[in-house]
Amino acid sequence: MRLEEIAKIQEEFSTEYPQFELKEFLGAGGSGLAFAFSEGKVLKLTADTNREVIVCNALQGRQNKYLCNIELVGGNFYSISQEQEYTWITMERLYIHPHQEWVNQALQDFRRSWSDLYKNSNFTWSDLWSIYRKRELSKINLCKQHYVNYIHSTCKQIASGEVISKNHIDKRVNNAYTFFDFIGKAYEELFSICEDGFIDLNKGNFMFDKNGNLKALDLQIEI
Protein backbone atom coordinates (compact mmCIF):
# COMPACT_ATOMS: atom_id res chain seq x y z
CA MET A 1 0.00 0.00 0.00
CA ARG A 2 1.38 3.40 -0.99
CA LEU A 3 1.99 6.14 1.56
CA GLU A 4 -0.63 8.36 -0.07
CA GLU A 5 -3.23 5.62 0.37
CA ILE A 6 -2.27 5.14 4.00
CA ALA A 7 -2.50 8.88 4.63
CA LYS A 8 -5.98 8.91 3.07
CA ILE A 9 -7.17 6.03 5.26
CA GLN A 10 -5.76 7.83 8.31
CA GLU A 11 -7.61 11.00 7.33
CA GLU A 12 -10.88 9.13 6.82
CA PHE A 13 -10.61 7.31 10.13
CA SER A 14 -9.71 10.49 12.05
CA THR A 15 -12.77 12.20 10.59
CA GLU A 16 -15.07 9.39 11.75
CA TYR A 17 -13.29 8.80 15.09
CA PRO A 18 -11.80 12.16 16.14
CA GLN A 19 -11.18 10.87 19.68
CA PHE A 20 -8.18 8.93 18.36
CA GLU A 21 -5.18 11.07 17.51
CA LEU A 22 -3.22 8.79 15.20
CA LYS A 23 0.39 9.86 15.64
CA GLU A 24 2.66 7.44 13.80
CA PHE A 25 2.16 4.85 11.08
CA LEU A 26 3.76 1.62 12.31
CA GLY A 27 3.31 -0.73 9.39
CA ALA A 28 0.94 -2.70 7.18
CA GLY A 29 0.37 -6.40 6.65
CA GLY A 30 -1.73 -8.58 4.44
CA SER A 31 -5.02 -7.66 6.10
CA GLY A 32 -4.54 -4.30 7.79
CA LEU A 33 -2.42 -1.48 9.10
CA ALA A 34 -1.40 -0.07 12.47
CA PHE A 35 -0.85 3.35 14.02
CA ALA A 36 0.46 4.56 17.36
CA PHE A 37 -2.22 6.75 18.93
CA SER A 38 -1.15 7.35 22.52
CA GLU A 39 1.67 6.44 24.88
CA GLY A 40 2.23 2.71 24.67
CA LYS A 41 -0.86 1.97 22.58
CA VAL A 42 -1.59 0.92 19.02
CA LEU A 43 -4.73 1.19 16.91
CA LYS A 44 -4.98 -1.51 14.28
CA LEU A 45 -7.35 -1.52 11.33
CA THR A 46 -7.94 -5.08 10.17
CA ALA A 47 -9.86 -6.31 7.18
CA ASP A 48 -9.76 -9.84 8.63
CA THR A 49 -13.10 -9.49 10.38
CA ASN A 50 -13.38 -13.21 11.07
CA ARG A 51 -10.12 -14.97 11.97
CA GLU A 52 -8.33 -12.12 13.72
CA VAL A 53 -11.30 -10.38 15.33
CA ILE A 54 -12.54 -13.62 16.92
CA VAL A 55 -9.22 -14.13 18.73
CA CYS A 56 -8.99 -10.47 19.72
CA ASN A 57 -12.49 -10.62 21.20
CA ALA A 58 -11.39 -13.58 23.33
CA LEU A 59 -8.20 -11.78 24.47
CA GLN A 60 -9.91 -8.45 25.08
CA GLY A 61 -9.20 -6.96 28.52
CA ARG A 62 -6.77 -9.68 29.63
CA GLN A 63 -3.22 -9.14 30.83
CA ASN A 64 -1.21 -11.73 28.95
CA LYS A 65 2.29 -12.97 29.63
CA TYR A 66 3.24 -14.20 26.17
CA LEU A 67 0.61 -12.60 23.92
CA CYS A 68 0.00 -8.98 23.00
CA ASN A 69 -2.64 -7.42 25.27
CA ILE A 70 -5.84 -6.46 23.45
CA GLU A 71 -7.49 -3.46 25.07
CA LEU A 72 -10.65 -3.08 22.97
CA VAL A 73 -12.22 -4.55 19.87
CA GLY A 74 -14.08 -1.51 18.60
CA GLY A 75 -16.51 -0.83 15.83
CA ASN A 76 -16.42 -0.97 12.07
CA PHE A 77 -14.84 1.56 9.78
CA TYR A 78 -15.43 1.77 6.05
CA SER A 79 -12.68 3.33 3.96
CA ILE A 80 -14.23 5.01 0.95
CA SER A 81 -10.89 5.39 -0.79
CA GLN A 82 -10.10 1.67 -0.44
CA GLU A 83 -13.69 0.46 -0.69
CA GLN A 84 -12.84 -1.74 2.28
CA GLU A 85 -14.52 -2.54 5.58
CA TYR A 86 -12.19 -2.64 8.61
CA THR A 87 -12.58 -3.40 12.30
CA TRP A 88 -10.55 -1.17 14.59
CA ILE A 89 -8.75 -2.69 17.57
CA THR A 90 -6.70 -1.02 20.30
CA MET A 91 -3.81 -2.94 21.86
CA GLU A 92 -0.57 -2.52 23.74
CA ARG A 93 2.40 -1.39 21.71
CA LEU A 94 5.23 -3.85 21.24
CA TYR A 95 8.70 -2.66 20.31
CA ILE A 96 11.76 -3.70 18.35
CA HIS A 97 14.29 -4.49 21.07
CA PRO A 98 18.11 -4.53 21.10
CA HIS A 99 17.66 -8.33 21.37
CA GLN A 100 15.50 -8.42 18.23
CA GLU A 101 18.27 -9.93 16.13
CA TRP A 102 18.39 -13.16 18.14
CA VAL A 103 14.59 -13.45 17.99
CA ASN A 104 14.58 -13.08 14.20
CA GLN A 105 17.38 -15.66 13.86
CA ALA A 106 15.68 -18.08 16.26
CA LEU A 107 12.37 -17.72 14.39
CA GLN A 108 14.13 -18.48 11.13
CA ASP A 109 15.79 -21.55 12.66
CA PHE A 110 12.47 -22.64 14.18
CA ARG A 111 10.61 -22.46 10.87
CA ARG A 112 13.44 -24.10 8.96
CA SER A 113 13.82 -27.01 11.39
CA TRP A 114 10.10 -27.92 11.31
CA SER A 115 9.98 -27.67 7.52
CA ASP A 116 13.15 -29.72 7.14
CA LEU A 117 12.04 -32.41 9.60
CA TYR A 118 8.83 -33.01 7.65
CA LYS A 119 10.09 -32.07 4.17
CA ASN A 120 8.76 -35.30 2.65
CA SER A 121 5.22 -35.05 4.02
CA ASN A 122 3.78 -31.76 2.65
CA PHE A 123 4.04 -30.22 6.13
CA THR A 124 2.10 -26.98 6.68
CA TRP A 125 1.87 -24.48 9.55
CA SER A 126 -1.62 -25.85 10.19
CA ASP A 127 0.05 -29.19 10.92
CA LEU A 128 2.33 -27.44 13.39
CA TRP A 129 -0.70 -25.82 15.03
CA SER A 130 -2.29 -29.25 15.35
CA ILE A 131 0.84 -30.67 17.01
CA TYR A 132 0.76 -27.95 19.67
CA ARG A 133 -3.04 -28.13 19.99
CA LYS A 134 -2.85 -31.88 20.70
CA ARG A 135 0.28 -31.46 22.86
CA GLU A 136 2.19 -34.09 20.89
CA LEU A 137 5.28 -33.77 23.05
CA SER A 138 7.22 -36.54 21.31
CA LYS A 139 7.05 -34.62 18.02
CA ILE A 140 7.86 -31.33 19.72
CA ASN A 141 10.89 -32.79 21.50
CA LEU A 142 12.04 -34.51 18.30
CA CYS A 143 11.95 -31.21 16.46
CA LYS A 144 13.72 -29.44 19.31
CA GLN A 145 16.63 -31.86 18.95
CA HIS A 146 16.51 -31.52 15.16
CA TYR A 147 16.55 -27.75 15.73
CA VAL A 148 19.85 -28.00 17.63
CA ASN A 149 21.34 -30.42 15.09
CA TYR A 150 20.33 -28.04 12.31
CA ILE A 151 22.15 -25.15 14.00
CA HIS A 152 25.33 -27.19 14.44
CA SER A 153 25.14 -28.32 10.83
CA THR A 154 24.55 -24.80 9.55
CA CYS A 155 27.42 -23.37 11.58
CA LYS A 156 29.75 -26.05 10.21
CA GLN A 157 28.79 -25.12 6.66
CA ILE A 158 29.36 -21.43 7.38
CA ALA A 159 32.65 -22.28 9.02
CA SER A 160 34.28 -23.33 5.76
CA GLY A 161 36.78 -20.52 5.34
CA GLU A 162 35.92 -18.73 8.57
CA VAL A 163 36.09 -19.45 12.29
CA ILE A 164 32.84 -19.90 14.22
CA SER A 165 33.52 -19.84 17.93
CA LYS A 166 32.04 -22.42 20.28
CA ASN A 167 30.59 -19.52 22.25
CA HIS A 168 28.72 -18.31 19.16
CA ILE A 169 27.26 -21.77 18.50
CA ASP A 170 26.33 -22.29 22.17
CA LYS A 171 24.60 -18.89 22.26
CA ARG A 172 22.61 -19.66 19.11
CA VAL A 173 21.58 -23.04 20.51
CA ASN A 174 20.54 -21.42 23.80
CA ASN A 175 18.50 -18.84 21.88
CA ALA A 176 16.89 -21.66 19.93
CA TYR A 177 15.81 -23.42 23.14
CA THR A 178 14.54 -20.11 24.56
CA PHE A 179 12.43 -19.37 21.48
CA PHE A 180 11.19 -22.96 21.22
CA ASP A 181 10.02 -22.84 24.85
CA PHE A 182 8.46 -19.40 24.28
CA ILE A 183 6.32 -20.73 21.42
CA GLY A 184 5.15 -23.60 23.61
CA LYS A 185 4.17 -21.25 26.44
CA ALA A 186 2.54 -18.77 24.06
CA TYR A 187 0.42 -21.52 22.53
CA GLU A 188 -0.48 -22.85 25.97
CA GLU A 189 -1.68 -19.39 27.01
CA LEU A 190 -3.54 -18.86 23.75
CA PHE A 191 -5.31 -22.23 23.86
CA SER A 192 -6.44 -21.55 27.44
CA ILE A 193 -8.26 -18.45 26.16
CA CYS A 194 -9.20 -19.37 22.61
CA GLU A 195 -8.86 -23.06 21.80
CA ASP A 196 -8.71 -22.44 18.04
CA GLY A 197 -6.12 -19.67 18.30
CA PHE A 198 -3.26 -19.65 15.79
CA ILE A 199 0.11 -17.85 16.04
CA ASP A 200 1.30 -16.37 12.75
CA LEU A 201 4.94 -17.48 12.54
CA ASN A 202 6.23 -14.63 10.40
CA LYS A 203 8.99 -12.11 11.00
CA GLY A 204 7.67 -8.98 12.68
CA ASN A 205 5.11 -10.83 14.78
CA PHE A 206 7.41 -11.32 17.78
CA MET A 207 8.48 -8.19 19.63
CA PHE A 208 8.94 -6.91 23.17
CA ASP A 209 6.67 -5.03 25.56
CA LYS A 210 7.80 -1.94 27.46
CA ASN A 211 9.26 -4.15 30.21
CA GLY A 212 11.38 -6.16 27.79
CA ASN A 213 9.19 -9.29 27.70
CA LEU A 214 8.91 -11.16 24.40
CA LYS A 215 5.33 -11.44 23.10
CA ALA A 216 3.49 -12.70 20.03
CA LEU A 217 1.08 -10.60 18.04
CA ASP A 218 -1.01 -11.06 14.87
CA LEU A 219 -3.11 -13.90 16.26
CA GLN A 220 -5.89 -15.59 14.32
CA ILE A 221 -8.04 -18.69 14.50
CA GLU A 222 -7.21 -21.87 12.63
CA ILE A 223 -9.93 -22.79 10.16
Structure description:
The protein has 223 residues and is α+β, with helices and mostly antiparallel strands. Helices cover 45% and strands 22% of the residues. It has helices at 3-16, 51-59, 100-117, 125-133, 137-158, 166-193, and strands spanning 24-28, 32-38, 41-46, 70-79, 84-92, 197-199, 206-208, 214-216, 219-221. Helix 3 packs across helix 5 and helix 5 (137-158) runs antiparallel to helix 6. The mean pLDDT is 89.
SSE arrangement, N to C: HEEEHEEHHHHEEEE
- What is the count of helical runs? 6
Contiguous uncertain segments of 5+ residues? none
Number of strands: 9
- Kindly provide the radius of gyration, computed on alpha-carbon positions and rounded to a whole number of angstroms: 19 Å
Largest sheet: 5 strands, antiparallel
Share of helix among residues? 40-55%
Mean pLDDT: 89
Strand content range? 15-25%
Structural class: alpha+beta
**Largest sheet strand order:** 1-2-3-5-4
Shape: globular
* N- to C-terminal distance: 27 Å
Architecture blueprint of SSEs:
Blueprint: H1 3-16, E1 24-28, E2 32-38, E3 41-46, H2 51-59, E4 70-79, E5 84-92, H3 100-117, H4 125-133, H5 137-158, H6 166-193, E6 197-199, E7 206-208, E8 214-216, E9 219-221
Antiparallel strand pairs: 1-2, 2-3, 3-5, 4-5, 6-9, 7-8
